[in-house]
Amino acid sequence: MGDVILRVENLYKTFQKKIKAVQGVTFEVEEGDVFGFLGPNGAGKTTTIRMILGLIRPDSGEVYIDNYSIRKERFAALKKVGALVEGPAFYGYLSARDNLKIFAEYSGDISISRIDEVLEIVGLTKRAKDKVNGYSLGMRQRLGIAQALLNNPRLLILDEPTNGLDPYGVQEVRNLIKRLSCDEKITIFISSHILSEIEQICNKVAIINQGKLIVSGKVSELLNPEQRIYEITGPDLSNLKGLLKRMKNVVLISEEPLRFKINTVKPEDLLTSLVSSGAKVRAFYPYKPSLEEFFFNVTGGEKGEVCKDRAV
Ligand SMILES: Nc1ncnc2c1ncn2[C@@H]1O[C@H](COP(=O)(O)OP(=O)(O)OP(=O)(O)O)[C@@H](O)[C@H]1O
Fold this sequence. Notes:
This protein is α/β, with parallel strands linked by helices. The chain has 2 domains: 4-223, Rossmann fold; 229-287, no CATH class. Helix content is 33%, strand content 27%. The chain contains 11 helices and 14 strands. The chain has helices at residues 45-52, 74-78, 96-107, 112-121, 137-149, 167-182, 195-201, 219-223, 237-245, 267-276, 291-299, and strands at residues 4-15, 19-30, 34-38, 60-65, 68-69, 81-84, 155-159, 187-192, 204-209, 212-218, 229-233, 250-254, 258-262, 283-286. Strands 6-7-8-3-9-10 form a 6-stranded mixed β-sheet, with helices on both faces. It has a 4-stranded antiparallel β-sheet with strand order 2-1-4-5. A hairpin with a 3-residue loop joins strand 1 and strand 2. The protein starts with a strand and ends in a 13-residue tail after the last helix. Adenosine-5'-triphosphate is lined by residues 15-16, 19, 21, 39, 41-47, 193. Residues 6-235 form the ABC transporter domain.
């Protein structure tokens, strides 16, 4: 287990005395994690991030970064944090490099060589002298990440970094996040409602809904905690279904796809007895819901379905 780099303890925030934006949120991020913070619109993600960064004050609760309290030791807590919250603002008539130079001057203690380094990391070296006005949204986001990297952060906090990007832009930012985690060894905290993206890049997630944390943990463990649910396919599904129904220790969950839970029997023994009863089996595998299915299950939303009789 890595050291805890971010600890959020029982945070509460109410706006205008009635909007309960965040209600008792607690979680930990360990060094090396790519931690996904998920939730539908209005769930409380940005409010939580703003409290983590000390941009707004919680009604109660604590945030510790690297064991420093953001309330009592703000400077020390934020020293090794980079953040991209809401769209980054740049001077459009200046180049990327000049924008970063201005920012570095404000911040102090940042060398010119670091500016070139961060431009290289985010893949903007070749375009560094071009005016930001001519940048795509994806390039601007990468420049925003470059800015957040200037102070050599150990923890990078990104609030919906792929919002509004086209699929190419999304992929660029996703690849960049992977590189930052693997090559630069930066711990990443990323909020998003693009679930497939979180599933591809994060090792841990926390899901928040209506201000409350619903679940948090390792993606791999959340999605199939017991490895007891299986799916099976074959040329004659109704025969397979009939055989499964007659078996002890098997509980059918759904018919299409044919999905079931096994209790005490081993999956390999179940498969042997199915085949020896004459079943033709094409595939048999543990069921792993997508993060999207999991998200809709725990937030109580409904996943849209394509009309069954429409050709797709
Ligand atoms: N400054 C504010 N004043 C009043 N209400 C606010 C303020 N900031 C946020 N809220 C409300 O708090 C709730 C949580 O908002 P928040 O922006 O944290 O959600 P979010 O999960 O980031 O949503 P989104 O994905 O849409 O950005 C919402 O009901 C929002 O309208």
